[in-house]
Write the structure tokens for this entry.
Amino acid sequence: MLEQARRILKDVFGYDSFRGRQGDIIERVAGGGDALVLMPTGGGKSLCFQVPGLLRDGLAVVVSPLIALMDDQVATLDELGVSVAALNSTVSAADQRILAERIQRGEIKMLYLAPERLVQPRMLAFLQGLQIALFAIDEAHCVSQWGHDFRPEYLQLGQLAELFPDVPRIALTATADMRTREEIVTRLHLQNAERFLSSFDRPNIFYRIVPKEKPRQQLLAFLADRRSDAGIVYCLSRKKVDEVAAYLSAEGFPALPYHAGLPNETRAMHQKRFLNEEGLIMVATIAFGMGIDKPNVRFVAHLDLPKSLEAYYQETGRAGRDGLPADAWMAYGLQDVLMLKQMLQNSEGDERHKRVEQHKLDAMLALCEETRCRRQSLLAYFDEDLPNPCGHCDNCVDGVQTWDATEPARQALSAIYRTGQRYGVGHLVDVLLGKDTEKVRNFGHQHLAVFGVGKNRAEGEWRSLFRQLVARGLADVDLEGYGGLRLSDTCRPLLRGEVTLELRRDLKPQTTSKSSSSGGSPASQLVRPEEREQWEALRALRRKLAEEHAVPPYVIFPDSTLLEMLRSQPGSMSEMAQVSGVGARKLERYGEAFLEVLGGRAEAPRVVADIRHELISLASAGMTPAQIANQLQCTEKNVYSLLAEAIGKQQLSLEQALDLPEDLLTEIQDAFLDGEGELPPVAGIAGQFASRVPEGVLYCVRAALQSEFEI
Ligand code: ADP
Ligand code: ZN
């Protein structure tokens, strides 16, 4: 059986070996047993039901909660040559009938369904008349009423056990906590399922948390090494999302906003572009997440603190599904703590609930101020013991300096106390530094004993100290008042001199692009400079094929497969067949084309196509022609002529391409429309605008007018 499974793995999927416990799981389900699979994102859950689905006779039925997830898997299987179909609300009644007939004729091997479809009595009756290979229940944690993804329809899936007693069922999830696990077992009637629990470590993710100083510059410095990588930047508020997306675009990093305040169509379009294009950054609130199956998200950056480690793990987990190096980066400061505590205070819910949330926030803060390995600390929270420091996080790589902060901490606490427990950090630091400010004089704080006792330390050090005092609960925030600091009960032993305090010494934050170690992971770049050109050529070919087939690029081949082509340089079809991720069907369809690119026989024409494509995304992300020219390393004149071409083909609107003042635009349009009949050539009116706009602008306006006339 395992032999057959291996053959399918190689022939259909193009992979050489099973990962982790995939082999055991497949053997269990293919042999007719039930299974509960807990595996982190990117662990390879899909193969666990796809392979036995292909091995067993009959129709494999897969339950999936989101249309986006279904579409993605269906497209992927379709590319692999598996006869697969999805049944959801986007399928018309007529198409549903055709599909039902095809299923009855045995022409469909795998069927993806929304849970509410599956449990319709008619559907169940229909399926009972067929041979069923297995039921796979993906995202099984949706059955949990306590989780945020709860889907009531999942509760009804339990009846499958009684209706189809001889059909194996496999439930899969990346949510591991004990309570959810037990709920899945009870509600889905999986008491006889064998449990397969994998480590929740994501070894390819590099974790880094930096103190927040000038967050935007820090983010830019982090991004500098990651041009043309796709990533997600999480922010707390919608307003900030909009601002950061605009800022990044202006700085030459094409970025799109995503939050619940945007119209549905805009959100859908941005999500689609993120999946289909390469190198786009999605700036988003947590509204963006579930259903994002894009495997080559190279980084997840947080500009604001998540409210729990569960949220942090889940959000950072969207990076690097493909197993290639990826980064989780976060800038964190005292302001974040204040904000979240405030939100918690104002939230609805009883005291007990608030205490739980407070506890979760504390765990998040502890990770931020952690002096040991971040990964050990993160996994320990999820009850997993990593015996040794990971060597792949900022603390492991940079080392953490700690210092004895007992005395200055006492001074800081004393400053809080002496000033009456009502001032924010800014003023407290001024007092400690002995600054002569208006506020100090107004309140007579220059007469306090603590005034000026902290002159020997820099302002940044004091701020870092206050942040850590709050994060450790030694000082509290006065949430009823104006967010001033107060002493908390736990600081008494420290004030009395009964305990000492070791704190983390903040590294100087990196705000220039010449960031060496502090920017991100040591392996932040996937390809070496000398490989760049061929890598881009491979990606361009992939993009072209993806456009032709109307699927996201990673459905053609994941990055890992392209990377292996790049490194192993196959020179023949049989060598190409050895590359991981190249199955029989894809070899036949695409092998030749990729061999040509690798052999350097098909480069030039595509690079232009590539530039065109990138230009359109850069322009629609709001970059000016000068910035685009800089990014694509070509002349501005070239950019204008490509823009005009794209406008002419209606791939881009004039407004997206250029930011022209209204009256100037009208003037140019009038000049073109002045005469009778045909539009005059640009040369005919260029004289009038000679010193006012680049000639390229005129080409763009003309192209827009022309395309309007053609409609
Ligand atoms: P999950 O659903 O657990 O997040 P996926 O099933 O999407 O993970 O798999 C993540 C990636 O790993 C996919 O690109 C998949 O093709 C790849 N993958 C899975 N199993 C293997 C394997 N045995 N060998 C190579 N690649 C694999
Ligand atoms: Zn580590």
